[in-house]
Model the fold of this input.
Amino acid sequence: METHAAYKSRWLPWILLLPTFVILLVFLYYPTLETFRLSLYRVAFLGLRKTFVGLANYRELLTSPVYHQVFLNTAIYSFLVVFFSMAIGLFLSVLANQRISGRSFYRLLLIWPYALSPAVAGAIFLFLFNPQAGIVNYFLQAFFKIQPDWLGQPRLALGVLVAAAVWKNVGYNVVFYIAGLQNLPGDVLEAALIDGATPWQRFWRITFPLLSPMTFFLFVMNTIYAFFDTFPFVDLLTQGGPNGATNILIFSIYRDGFRFLKTGMAAAESVVLFVGVVLLTILQFRLGERRVHYGG
Done:
C-alpha cells in the first residue's frame, strides 16, 4: 500500500524552506549582485564616496600590463596545479589499490594532508622552504653546499606554490580515484589479462577510459580549487612576489580590495574571475563529456 506525504497547508513547505532562502539571499545572491554593481564604480576610502565609471575598471584590467601578468600567472599556476594534482593522485591511487599488506595505512598517509587547512599547509611549506631557516636548505647546505632562494626567485617561488597546492589537494584525488578503481568491472580486466595485455596496455586501454567519469569530475573540481582555494599559499609564502611573479588573480583581488582599498577594481577582478571560471567549466563540459564513457 502506497502512502503519499502531504502537508496540511500549502504554505508549510515554503515556511520550512524560508531559513535556507534567507541565508542564500543574504550570503550569496546579494553579495554577488553587489559585486557586479561595485565593479562599475570607483569607490573612495571605506566606501564614503562612489563615482560611477561604467566599464572603466574592466578596460583597465584588459589593457594594463600588470593585470596581463596576473592573468598569465593565474593560467600557468592553475594548469600546473590541476595537471600534477590529478596525475600524482591517479598514480598513487593505482599503487594504493594493490593487494599488499598495510594498504589501509598507506591510504591514510596519502589522504591526511587534505584534512589540513590551506593555512596550515602553507605554514608547513614556509618552514620547509624558508631561505634562511628552512629544513630543505639545511640539508642542501649539509650535503651539496647550496642554498637556493626558494621564495626570492620567480620560477622557484612559483614551483613552491604549485608544490604546496598539489600536496594539499592530492589526497582529495586519491579518495575518488581509489573509489573508482575499486568499482571497475573485474571481468573486463581479467579478460584483458588472459588475452596477454601488458599492465601498461591494461591501464591505458581499459582502466583509464573506465575512469573517465571520475577524471572529468575531478578535472572540474581541481580547476575550481586552483582558482579559488589556493589564496592562503600565496599569502603565506610569497605575497605575490618576487616582482609579481606569483601574483595570481585571487590574491590580486584581496590586495586591491583590502590593502590598496581599490574596491571597484577588486569587484571587477572578482567578476572577471567568476565569468572566466564559469566559461571554463562550460567548455570543460562541452568538450570533456565527449571523452567520458559511462557504464561498464
The longest helix spans residues 65-96. The chain has a mean pLDDT of 87. The chain has one domain: 58-291.
